[in-house]
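#onboarding

Welcome to the new folks! Below is a worked example of what a typical request in this channel looks like: someone posts a single protein sequence, and someone else replies with the predicted structure as tokens. Don't worry about understanding the tokens yet, we'll cover that in week two.

Example request:
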Amino acid sequence: MKTRFALCLLIAALIAAVFSLPAFAVTEMVPVYFRYEHDPRLNPSAMADIIADPSAVYGFSPSPDGGLKEYASFDWTDPELVNGENGREARIAYHKSIEELYGIVYQMEEDGSSVEEIARAVSKRRNEIRMESYDGDPEGLAVMKARNLEKYGHEEGPLPDELYEQYGSWEKVIEKAFSLNSGMDACLGLYDDYYDIYVIIGQVPQDQAITREYAAAVFADLFGAEDSGASGDVTAFSDGTDVSPWLSGGIEAAVGAGILKGYEDGTLRPSAPVTCAEAAVMLGRFLTVSGYAFEETGNEADIGYVPEWASAEIDCLLRAGLIKSGDGFVCSDALSAQQLRTLAERTAELIGLDISGE
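Example response:
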């Protein structure tokens, strides 16, 4: 037992000797990963408009190059501004104004209605709500009807079939009916509140796989890897250009530190589901490069077969108590979102990272 534990220390010494690297330092800010139950970085539609920003109140701010660029110059680190009447309060008020539409979606989804049926229903009701908003204002209603007649050829506003022809999918018709912007919701602390809608309209899959690039990015968050000075060239891999732009900083740091090494065929496979064994090796290497000294905890979890290439790191994680019996950790299985969360939370506790946000 002591011999195997000593191997953990030897691995740490060997990596330190082979790689002359700046040590990773635990960040003082709550990592972006812990800001939400559902990480916006797994939603490409959201990330097209925003960037991960640990200094921002909710961990995200508008990208100067995205659809929310007009808001990029605001101070997203200022809680009063972000949570004020022109920020979070206004966004909450907007969502409340269309609560009826959310109710339609949730009920029809529960009843087993198709996406097309839901899209037709919310689009029709959205037009009716716009009409009703002019109650007591006949002149305003007349102006709106005239504008619709000129633009769409009828007074009631755009019809579902017209919207489908314009946007190409029923999911997009639903999104437009709500004027949804998951990126803005992420910037204003509301992403989890409306996550189910993002799933229904297809922005994120129901059962989303945890990819190699995402697992590496989450671990990079924990150790402040992007601020370490380590940076590798992901384009050295034949599929390096496939790395998601919003995860590239953490991936480049992991490659530069020798944590993410790729496969013998020269690929990185960033979008491939990460196995439990691969994730364990990444985490073990991050801990080693950060200078963590593994300590014996007495944890004797039996996780079954462990491949030789992952045995040293997995043994270290077992003995540090990061992998335990009951985790469902099977080396060849795809790592689940819950398993990643468990590893991240235990690692944060181990390295003294405060994730409470208080």
